[in-house]
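Handout, page 2. Input:
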Amino acid sequence: MIDSASRYPDRTALEFYGRRISYRQLNTLTNRFAQALVRLGVRKGERVALMLPNCPQAVIGYFGALKAGAWVVAINPLYVGTEVAHQVTDACAETIIALDLFYPRIEEVRTRTPSSGSS
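Output:
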């Protein structure tokens, strides 16, 4: 993605519901998200779970987490609470990136996962 941002900065990287995001914009957004994750305490080598549908936030979250030095773990946003808990525990994920719509399922399992003290 970084190569594409430098070689084709004005070309469309993503299109979602008629809105286009260029490679330059995507690179900027992923850099900003990576910085936000680091400020929140995500360290190199930690697992960051993405519980997102196919949307620009999923792409930004994925590349932003990688740029922050994290490993990315995908969680199906259709999973029920027990499946989310199993996936988070199995992957040793301490951070979940999700739409607020999915927060009730995450909150339901927070106390049943090893990183229950994390936000």
